[in-house]
Specification:
The complex is a heterodimer of chains A (236) and B (141). With 236 residues, chain A is an all-alpha fold. Chain A contains ten helices and one strand. In chain A, helix 4 packs antiparallel against helix 6 and helix 8 runs antiparallel to helix 9.
Chain lengths: 236, 141
Protein backbone atom coordinates (compact mmCIF):
# COMPACT_ATOMS: atom_id res chain seq x y z
CA UNK A 1 0.00 0.00 0.00
CA UNK A 2 1.14 3.50 -0.59
CA UNK A 3 0.62 5.05 2.84
CA UNK A 4 3.53 7.33 3.44
CA UNK A 5 5.58 7.12 6.53
CA UNK A 6 4.23 9.79 8.86
CA UNK A 7 7.58 10.25 10.56
CA UNK A 8 11.02 10.90 9.04
CA UNK A 9 11.37 13.39 6.22
CA UNK A 10 14.48 12.25 4.38
CA UNK A 11 14.61 9.13 2.26
CA UNK A 12 17.21 7.44 4.41
CA UNK A 13 15.13 8.13 7.48
CA UNK A 14 12.26 6.43 5.78
CA UNK A 15 14.39 3.58 4.59
CA UNK A 16 16.41 2.83 7.70
CA UNK A 17 14.62 4.17 10.76
CA UNK A 18 11.10 4.36 11.94
CA UNK A 19 12.08 7.43 14.01
CA UNK A 20 9.90 9.11 16.58
CA UNK A 21 6.23 8.52 15.82
CA UNK A 22 3.37 10.12 17.68
CA UNK A 23 1.42 7.06 18.84
CA UNK A 24 1.43 3.28 18.77
CA UNK A 25 -0.58 3.09 15.61
CA UNK A 26 1.69 5.30 13.57
CA UNK A 27 4.74 3.57 15.05
CA UNK A 28 3.31 0.27 13.90
CA UNK A 29 2.64 1.70 10.45
CA UNK A 30 6.17 3.10 10.36
CA UNK A 31 7.54 -0.41 10.91
CA UNK A 32 5.14 -2.06 8.44
CA UNK A 33 6.00 0.48 5.75
CA UNK A 34 9.72 0.27 6.33
CA UNK A 35 11.62 -1.66 3.71
CA UNK A 36 14.31 -3.00 6.03
CA UNK A 37 12.14 -3.70 9.04
CA UNK A 38 9.32 -5.20 7.03
CA UNK A 39 10.59 -6.51 3.71
CA UNK A 40 7.23 -7.39 2.17
CA UNK A 41 4.27 -5.05 1.95
CA UNK A 42 1.59 -5.98 4.49
CA UNK A 43 -1.14 -5.88 1.86
CA UNK A 44 -1.31 -5.82 -1.92
CA UNK A 45 -4.43 -4.83 -3.92
CA UNK A 46 -6.14 -7.94 -5.30
CA UNK A 47 -7.01 -6.60 -8.80
CA UNK A 48 -3.35 -5.69 -9.34
CA UNK A 49 -2.28 -9.32 -8.98
CA UNK A 50 -4.49 -11.07 -11.54
CA UNK A 51 -2.61 -13.06 -14.13
CA UNK A 52 -4.50 -11.55 -17.02
CA UNK A 53 -3.44 -8.15 -15.72
CA UNK A 54 0.23 -8.70 -14.81
CA UNK A 55 1.15 -11.68 -17.01
CA UNK A 56 3.61 -12.33 -14.16
CA UNK A 57 6.41 -11.04 -16.35
CA UNK A 58 8.18 -8.89 -13.75
CA UNK A 59 8.50 -11.78 -11.31
CA UNK A 60 9.56 -14.21 -14.03
CA UNK A 61 12.25 -11.76 -15.19
CA UNK A 62 13.56 -11.35 -11.64
CA UNK A 63 13.70 -15.14 -11.25
CA UNK A 64 15.53 -15.50 -14.56
CA UNK A 65 18.03 -12.89 -13.34
CA UNK A 66 18.73 -15.06 -10.28
CA UNK A 67 19.13 -18.17 -12.48
CA UNK A 68 21.53 -16.22 -14.70
CA UNK A 69 23.65 -15.04 -11.79
CA UNK A 70 23.93 -18.54 -10.32
CA UNK A 71 24.71 -20.29 -13.62
CA UNK A 72 26.97 -17.41 -14.67
CA UNK A 73 29.14 -17.78 -11.58
CA UNK A 74 29.32 -21.54 -12.19
CA UNK A 75 30.42 -20.94 -15.80
CA UNK A 76 33.03 -18.40 -14.63
CA UNK A 77 34.76 -21.13 -12.61
CA UNK A 78 35.75 -22.85 -15.83
CA UNK A 79 35.73 -20.15 -18.49
CA UNK A 80 39.03 -18.74 -19.79
CA UNK A 81 38.78 -15.26 -21.36
CA UNK A 82 41.63 -15.57 -23.84
CA UNK A 83 41.70 -16.24 -27.56
CA UNK A 84 43.71 -19.40 -26.97
CA UNK A 85 41.51 -20.68 -24.16
CA UNK A 86 37.97 -19.38 -24.61
CA UNK A 87 36.80 -21.86 -27.23
CA UNK A 88 38.40 -24.90 -25.65
CA UNK A 89 37.14 -23.92 -22.17
CA UNK A 90 33.58 -23.88 -23.52
CA UNK A 91 34.21 -27.25 -25.15
CA UNK A 92 35.52 -28.47 -21.80
CA UNK A 93 32.40 -27.16 -20.02
CA UNK A 94 30.16 -28.82 -22.61
CA UNK A 95 31.81 -32.21 -22.56
CA UNK A 96 33.86 -32.74 -19.41
CA UNK A 97 32.37 -30.70 -16.58
CA UNK A 98 29.61 -32.46 -14.69
CA UNK A 99 26.29 -30.82 -15.68
CA UNK A 100 28.32 -28.29 -17.66
CA UNK A 101 26.12 -28.63 -20.70
CA UNK A 102 23.03 -28.19 -18.50
CA UNK A 103 24.44 -25.10 -16.79
CA UNK A 104 25.39 -23.53 -20.10
CA UNK A 105 21.98 -24.32 -21.60
CA UNK A 106 20.25 -22.76 -18.60
CA UNK A 107 22.43 -19.67 -18.90
CA UNK A 108 21.93 -19.41 -22.66
CA UNK A 109 18.16 -19.92 -22.71
CA UNK A 110 17.46 -17.86 -19.61
CA UNK A 111 19.38 -14.96 -21.15
CA UNK A 112 17.37 -15.18 -24.36
CA UNK A 113 14.11 -15.64 -22.49
CA UNK A 114 14.91 -12.64 -20.29
CA UNK A 115 14.88 -10.34 -23.31
CA UNK A 116 11.41 -11.64 -24.19
CA UNK A 117 9.95 -11.46 -20.68
CA UNK A 118 11.36 -7.98 -20.08
CA UNK A 119 9.91 -6.79 -23.36
CA UNK A 120 6.49 -8.25 -22.50
CA UNK A 121 6.73 -6.70 -19.02
CA UNK A 122 7.45 -3.35 -20.65
CA UNK A 123 4.53 -3.69 -23.06
CA UNK A 124 2.13 -4.68 -20.29
CA UNK A 125 3.14 -1.81 -18.00
CA UNK A 126 2.90 0.59 -20.93
CA UNK A 127 -0.54 -0.64 -21.99
CA UNK A 128 -2.01 -0.60 -18.47
CA UNK A 129 -0.45 2.83 -17.70
CA UNK A 130 1.62 1.41 -14.87
CA UNK A 131 4.00 4.34 -15.42
CA UNK A 132 1.52 6.92 -14.09
CA UNK A 133 0.85 8.22 -10.57
CA UNK A 134 4.39 8.74 -9.35
CA UNK A 135 5.85 5.76 -11.16
CA UNK A 136 7.63 7.66 -13.93
CA UNK A 137 11.04 7.28 -12.30
CA UNK A 138 10.51 3.55 -11.86
CA UNK A 139 9.51 3.27 -15.52
CA UNK A 140 12.80 4.98 -16.42
CA UNK A 141 14.71 2.59 -14.17
CA UNK A 142 12.94 -0.29 -15.91
CA UNK A 143 13.95 0.92 -19.37
CA UNK A 144 17.55 1.34 -18.20
CA UNK A 145 17.41 -2.23 -16.85
CA UNK A 146 16.23 -3.45 -20.24
CA UNK A 147 19.10 -1.66 -21.99
CA UNK A 148 21.58 -3.06 -19.46
CA UNK A 149 20.24 -6.57 -20.11
CA UNK A 150 20.71 -6.04 -23.86
CA UNK A 151 24.31 -4.99 -23.15
CA UNK A 152 24.60 -8.07 -20.97
CA UNK A 153 23.50 -10.36 -23.80
CA UNK A 154 25.56 -8.53 -26.38
CA UNK A 155 28.78 -8.91 -24.37
CA UNK A 156 27.99 -12.49 -23.39
CA UNK A 157 27.49 -13.56 -26.99
CA UNK A 158 31.16 -13.05 -27.86
CA UNK A 159 32.56 -15.14 -25.03
CA UNK A 160 32.43 -18.63 -26.66
CA UNK A 161 34.73 -17.18 -29.35
CA UNK A 162 33.34 -19.25 -32.20
CA UNK A 163 32.54 -18.03 -35.71
CA UNK A 164 28.96 -17.05 -34.82
CA UNK A 165 30.14 -15.08 -31.79
CA UNK A 166 32.99 -13.37 -33.60
CA UNK A 167 30.99 -12.20 -36.60
CA UNK A 168 27.86 -11.26 -34.64
CA UNK A 169 30.08 -9.05 -32.52
CA UNK A 170 31.76 -7.65 -35.61
CA UNK A 171 28.46 -6.54 -37.14
CA UNK A 172 27.04 -5.55 -33.75
CA UNK A 173 29.93 -3.22 -33.01
CA UNK A 174 29.70 -1.98 -36.60
CA UNK A 175 26.18 -0.77 -35.80
CA UNK A 176 27.53 1.12 -32.79
CA UNK A 177 30.29 2.47 -35.05
CA UNK A 178 27.77 4.00 -37.44
CA UNK A 179 26.37 6.31 -34.76
CA UNK A 180 26.81 9.92 -35.85
CA UNK A 181 29.57 11.92 -34.09
CA UNK A 182 30.36 9.34 -31.37
CA UNK A 183 30.50 6.30 -33.68
CA UNK A 184 34.26 5.90 -33.86
CA UNK A 185 34.57 6.48 -30.15
CA UNK A 186 31.94 3.81 -29.41
CA UNK A 187 33.58 1.39 -31.84
CA UNK A 188 37.05 1.79 -30.35
CA UNK A 189 35.66 1.60 -26.82
CA UNK A 190 33.87 -1.68 -27.57
CA UNK A 191 36.59 -3.30 -29.67
CA UNK A 192 39.60 -1.77 -27.89
CA UNK A 193 41.05 -1.00 -31.30
CA UNK A 194 39.68 -1.13 -34.81
CA UNK A 195 39.06 -4.85 -35.07
CA UNK A 196 37.62 -7.57 -32.83
CA UNK A 197 40.61 -9.12 -31.06
CA UNK A 198 41.70 -10.62 -27.76
CA UNK A 199 41.44 -7.12 -26.23
CA UNK A 200 37.77 -7.04 -27.29
CA UNK A 201 37.25 -10.40 -25.60
CA UNK A 202 38.79 -9.04 -22.40
CA UNK A 203 36.66 -5.91 -22.54
CA UNK A 204 33.44 -7.83 -23.15
CA UNK A 205 34.30 -10.31 -20.41
CA UNK A 206 34.93 -7.48 -17.93
CA UNK A 207 31.70 -5.76 -18.94
CA UNK A 208 29.80 -9.05 -18.79
CA UNK A 209 30.93 -10.33 -15.39
CA UNK A 210 31.46 -7.10 -13.44
CA UNK A 211 29.98 -3.95 -14.95
CA UNK A 212 26.61 -5.15 -16.21
CA UNK A 213 25.89 -7.40 -13.20
CA UNK A 214 26.57 -4.54 -10.75
CA UNK A 215 24.38 -2.19 -12.80
CA UNK A 216 21.65 -4.83 -13.05
CA UNK A 217 21.59 -5.65 -9.37
CA UNK A 218 21.73 -1.96 -8.42
CA UNK A 219 18.90 -0.96 -10.72
CA UNK A 220 16.89 -4.06 -9.76
CA UNK A 221 17.13 -3.05 -6.10
CA UNK A 222 16.07 0.49 -7.01
CA UNK A 223 13.20 -0.94 -9.09
CA UNK A 224 11.92 -3.07 -6.22
CA UNK A 225 12.39 -0.37 -3.58
CA UNK A 226 10.36 2.02 -5.75
CA UNK A 227 7.55 -0.54 -6.13
CA UNK A 228 7.55 -0.98 -2.38
CA UNK A 229 7.53 2.76 -1.73
CA UNK A 230 4.94 3.83 -4.30
CA UNK A 231 2.85 0.67 -4.17
CA UNK A 232 1.63 -1.75 -6.81
CA UNK A 233 -0.29 -0.06 -9.64
CA UNK A 234 -4.01 -0.83 -9.75
CA UNK A 235 -5.76 -1.59 -13.03
CA UNK A 236 -8.03 1.08 -14.47
CA UNK B 1 -4.64 -16.59 -6.81
CA UNK B 2 -6.26 -13.48 -5.47
CA UNK B 3 -9.53 -13.96 -3.66
CA UNK B 4 -12.63 -12.13 -4.82
CA UNK B 5 -13.80 -11.11 -1.36
CA UNK B 6 -15.24 -7.55 -1.63
CA UNK B 7 -13.16 -6.43 1.33
CA UNK B 8 -10.03 -7.62 -0.48
CA UNK B 9 -11.04 -5.92 -3.72
CA UNK B 10 -11.04 -2.64 -1.83
CA UNK B 11 -8.21 -2.88 0.66
CA UNK B 12 -5.96 -5.48 -0.84
CA UNK B 13 -5.31 -9.08 0.03
CA UNK B 14 -2.87 -10.03 2.78
CA UNK B 15 0.62 -10.55 1.41
CA UNK B 16 0.84 -13.61 3.61
CA UNK B 17 -0.53 -16.21 2.98
CA UNK B 18 -2.52 -15.25 -0.15
CA UNK B 19 0.12 -13.63 -2.26
CA UNK B 20 2.90 -15.88 -1.02
CA UNK B 21 0.83 -18.83 -2.23
CA UNK B 22 0.74 -17.32 -5.73
CA UNK B 23 4.48 -16.74 -5.58
CA UNK B 24 4.94 -20.38 -4.62
CA UNK B 25 3.05 -21.53 -7.71
CA UNK B 26 5.16 -19.18 -9.84
CA UNK B 27 8.33 -20.62 -8.35
CA UNK B 28 7.19 -24.18 -9.08
CA UNK B 29 6.31 -23.16 -12.64
CA UNK B 30 9.72 -21.64 -13.18
CA UNK B 31 11.47 -24.70 -11.75
CA UNK B 32 9.51 -26.87 -14.19
CA UNK B 33 10.56 -24.54 -17.02
CA UNK B 34 14.18 -24.68 -15.86
CA UNK B 35 14.04 -28.47 -15.79
CA UNK B 36 12.55 -28.45 -19.30
CA UNK B 37 15.37 -26.20 -20.52
CA UNK B 38 17.85 -28.48 -18.83
CA UNK B 39 16.44 -31.56 -20.54
CA UNK B 40 16.42 -29.79 -23.92
CA UNK B 41 20.01 -28.70 -23.21
CA UNK B 42 21.05 -32.27 -22.50
CA UNK B 43 19.39 -33.63 -25.64
CA UNK B 44 20.53 -30.84 -27.93
CA UNK B 45 23.30 -28.72 -26.36
CA UNK B 46 23.70 -25.02 -27.12
CA UNK B 47 26.80 -26.07 -28.99
CA UNK B 48 29.63 -24.24 -30.64
CA UNK B 49 30.46 -23.41 -34.22
CA UNK B 50 33.98 -23.54 -35.60
CA UNK B 51 36.50 -21.45 -33.65
CA UNK B 52 36.56 -17.75 -34.53
CA UNK B 53 38.64 -16.96 -37.57
CA UNK B 54 39.02 -13.26 -38.49
CA UNK B 55 40.31 -14.24 -41.94
CA UNK B 56 37.30 -16.37 -42.85
CA UNK B 57 34.05 -14.41 -43.14
CA UNK B 58 30.99 -16.68 -43.20
CA UNK B 59 28.45 -16.21 -46.00
CA UNK B 60 25.66 -15.00 -43.76
CA UNK B 61 26.83 -12.71 -41.00
CA UNK B 62 24.06 -11.92 -38.56
CA UNK B 63 23.88 -10.32 -35.14
CA UNK B 64 21.94 -11.87 -32.22
CA UNK B 65 18.20 -12.19 -32.86
CA UNK B 66 17.27 -9.23 -30.63
CA UNK B 67 19.42 -6.93 -32.78
CA UNK B 68 18.22 -8.40 -36.07
CA UNK B 69 15.45 -5.81 -36.53
CA UNK B 70 17.94 -3.00 -36.08
CA UNK B 71 20.41 -4.69 -38.41
CA UNK B 72 17.74 -5.23 -41.07
CA UNK B 73 16.64 -1.60 -40.83
CA UNK B 74 20.24 -0.50 -41.39
CA UNK B 75 20.73 -2.93 -44.26
CA UNK B 76 17.74 -1.81 -46.30
CA UNK B 77 17.42 1.88 -45.52
CA UNK B 78 18.14 3.95 -48.69
CA UNK B 79 21.55 5.66 -48.70
CA UNK B 80 19.88 9.08 -48.67
CA UNK B 81 16.54 9.93 -47.04
CA UNK B 82 15.46 13.57 -47.43
CA UNK B 83 19.06 14.57 -47.88
CA UNK B 84 20.21 12.91 -44.63
CA UNK B 85 22.59 9.96 -44.63
CA UNK B 86 20.49 6.76 -44.44
CA UNK B 87 22.82 5.10 -41.94
CA UNK B 88 22.45 8.04 -39.57
CA UNK B 89 18.65 7.69 -39.72
CA UNK B 90 18.85 3.92 -39.32
CA UNK B 91 20.95 4.23 -36.19
CA UNK B 92 19.29 7.29 -34.73
CA UNK B 93 15.70 6.02 -35.19
CA UNK B 94 16.06 3.32 -32.50
CA UNK B 95 18.00 5.70 -30.23
CA UNK B 96 15.21 8.28 -30.51
CA UNK B 97 12.64 5.50 -30.09
CA UNK B 98 14.26 4.42 -26.81
CA UNK B 99 14.43 8.06 -25.66
CA UNK B 100 10.72 8.46 -26.45
CA UNK B 101 9.86 5.35 -24.46
CA UNK B 102 12.18 6.45 -21.64
CA UNK B 103 10.61 9.89 -21.34
CA UNK B 104 7.00 8.95 -22.19
CA UNK B 105 5.69 9.12 -18.57
CA UNK B 106 7.07 12.62 -18.15
CA UNK B 107 4.88 13.90 -20.99
CA UNK B 108 1.84 11.65 -20.51
CA UNK B 109 0.69 12.76 -17.05
CA UNK B 110 -3.06 13.00 -17.45
CA UNK B 111 -5.34 10.56 -15.65
CA UNK B 112 -5.75 7.37 -17.60
CA UNK B 113 -8.84 6.92 -19.77
CA UNK B 114 -10.23 4.26 -22.08
CA UNK B 115 -9.28 6.46 -25.03
CA UNK B 116 -5.66 6.84 -23.89
CA UNK B 117 -5.57 3.09 -23.37
CA UNK B 118 -6.72 2.53 -26.96
CA UNK B 119 -4.03 4.87 -28.26
CA UNK B 120 -1.38 3.00 -26.27
CA UNK B 121 -2.75 -0.31 -27.56
CA UNK B 122 -2.20 0.96 -31.10
CA UNK B 123 1.32 2.18 -30.32
CA UNK B 124 2.14 -1.22 -28.81
CA UNK B 125 0.49 -3.11 -31.66
CA UNK B 126 2.22 -1.25 -34.49
CA UNK B 127 5.58 -1.22 -32.70
CA UNK B 128 5.48 -4.96 -32.05
CA UNK B 129 4.34 -5.83 -35.57
CA UNK B 130 7.13 -3.72 -37.13
CA UNK B 131 9.70 -5.21 -34.78
CA UNK B 132 8.61 -8.81 -35.38
CA UNK B 133 8.36 -8.26 -39.14
CA UNK B 134 11.88 -6.82 -39.32
CA UNK B 135 13.23 -9.63 -37.14
CA UNK B 136 11.58 -12.36 -39.25
CA UNK B 137 12.79 -10.67 -42.41
CA UNK B 138 16.30 -10.58 -40.99
CA UNK B 139 16.01 -14.23 -40.00
CA UNK B 140 15.03 -15.51 -43.45
CA UNK B 141 17.11 -13.13 -45.60
Amino acid sequence: MSETNPSGKTWHNRLLYSSAAADDRSRMRAVANNLILHLHPTKVPAPALRWRYTWGMGGISATLAVVLIVTGVLLMFRYDASVAGAYTSIQWIETQVMFGSLIRALHHWSANLLVVTLFLHLLRVFYTAGFKDGRAINWTIGIILFLVVLAFNFTGYLLPWDQRAFWATTVGTDIAGSLPAVGDLALVFLRVGWSVSEATLGRFYGLHVIVTPLLTVGFMLAHFIMIRRVGVARPL
Amino acid sequence: MATTHPEHEKNGIPFYPDHVKTEFYVTVGILVLAAAIGIIGLISPVGLQAPADPLNTPLHVKPEWYFLALYQLLKYIPPKVLGIDGTVIGVMAPVLGVLLVLLWPFFDKKDDSKRAMRIRAWVVGIGVVVLIALTLWGEVS
